[in-house]
């Protein structure tokens, strides 16, 4: 290796959600320091939920994250239902699955097109692309609008849904609106194909870096697991959700206000690529085709391909939305009164948020007041893997110009789509 | 020359910034009217030269104050974006508990590694020119505030309760359905979104400037509720306003 000095210091990395720094310090070809630091202001959700009643838990935990508020809302409702021994109706579950696809699409399009694509096109943001690639930008906004309208239609609001509730919905979508939305999903699939073609045209800009790690995601016999399932590891089989602590072991590190996590290796990965590696056979046909077009094959150990896996999931989410809307319309939407019987107990639930496995674990007293809570966030689980990737990647690119090293490291962190606010918004409450 | 706009954030979920991206095709219109010169969540470039600063999030630690003061110094107009910035919002729920205890519960024996103090809205640290309320903000309202400023007009921020909009939407009163609602004292501007979706108003837009306490008391008495009931509910978003009496 050449004897080089490199000093990369990215303070508050851009085009990611939240605040993080990248530091790479190399003297005479020797790496002195190579860290991914999380400096987000911690928000202490444990204090926020302490002493609050069951009907406020979704309201509060939804605010952990603006981008994945629907996943937080749904897993929160599921945890409360698990604690009270409630099984929601088929219609409720179907509507929640549909709503989750809306968020998955919204979050992935935001990441792939607004946050990652500018790097592949050699610009600093999507804004200059409005001038140079207006049609492409309008295609992006059309798909993004489609996802947000689905969230509005089913959840009552794009961000922080207001019609979701324990054991039901406080209002139902208008069937006519669902029907016209379904037609627009077909247009959405054509737009997604156009976006896949754009990504294919710049795919040589995706760094080929490869490092095998452990992959963890929900898995289910019935479907490509997003709303429900057991926790699966690429190294170690599956466990039911209530034994999540066997796989998801969190610890505190000084460089980060967000916790890290590990299982069998030094770190593991969650999110679209982990899901793809574990459950790819259950993707819809259209999604499989786009995976093939973009050269994504399981098992894939290339972290920069996370964005491609997300685009594949976008197609899956739209095709699944069409199927779910057909089922809802076939059966007819019925008003179902919401019944909640409060009891003391613990409830654990998991969901696949856009960025990966998300667990909420609550304990209630006999009045339905929360006395203990723990929340395991996808990005927390990925921080350790980002660090391990950086340590493996940095020595291989030291001969490049400093600006290129910096961009390659930035793109690595960005590929993980870190939701740093989420990860620093810790929620853990132990009973005293 | 187009006015320059910067977007900044502190302790928050960044859901309000997301509403800017959620303007969809209107973003194209927005960038034809203003130059976005700093928006960390969406762009790599950054400049300290801006006229309008949109600020999301609460202030929860000493080290963030200097950054906010610098933003205030750089900008001609500072707009607080969303409940965390305008009223403290959900973040202030932690103020209801002892800070040392809060830190210890999350970080255990590593509690001293991380700094934090009780959450505050941004106008507790710097003067604020305009407020876009809500959790999250309504993107239409944000657009109308920015449009008004570009036209040199005063933006109209509603100062009447959610009940007004709820009546206009012809919703059945939430209290009549046997539920409890903060609509009578909460600032409107959301088109009574939550009650219109069968839910209750949780007060995310904060109190109107002069809440009609008598009317609220009458409503409470009519339905057999007490002021304590409403205060308990109000702490969800309004802990900071409640504790400081602002």
3D architecture notes:
The complex is a heterodimer of chains A (432) and B (246). With 432 residues, chain A is an alpha+beta fold. Chain A has one domain (45-429): Cytochrome-c3 Hydrogenase, chain B (Orthogonal Bundle). Chain A has 13 helices and 15 strands. Chain A has helices at 45-49, 54-62, 69-84, 90-120, 127-132, 134-155, 175-201, 272-279, 285-293, 306-331, 378-393, 402-415, 420-424, and strands at residues 6-10, 20-27, 30-38, 164-165, 168-169, 214-219, 230-233, 237-239, 249-251, 260-262, 268-269, 345-353, 356-364, 370-376, 428-429. In chain A, strand 13 (356-364) and strand 14 form a beta hairpin. In chain A, helix 4 runs antiparallel to helix 6, helix 7 (175-201) runs antiparallel to helix 10 and helix 9 runs antiparallel to helix 10 (306-331). Chain A starts with 5 loop residues before the first strand and ends with a strand. Chain B is of the alpha/beta class and 246 residues long. Chain B is 38% helix and 10% strand. Chain B contains 10 helices and 5 strands. Chain B has helices at residues 15-21, 25-33, 62-74, 83-86, 99-107, 139-150, 162-168, 193-196, 213-222, 227-244, and strands at 4-9, 35-39, 52-56, 77-81, 130-132. In chain B, strand 3 (52-56), helix 3 (62-74) and strand 4 (77-81) form a beta-alpha-beta unit. The chains are: A alpha+beta (432), B alpha/beta (246). Chains A and B meet through helix 1, helix 2, helix 4, helix 6 and strand 15 of A and helix 1, helix 2, helix 5 and helix 8 of B.
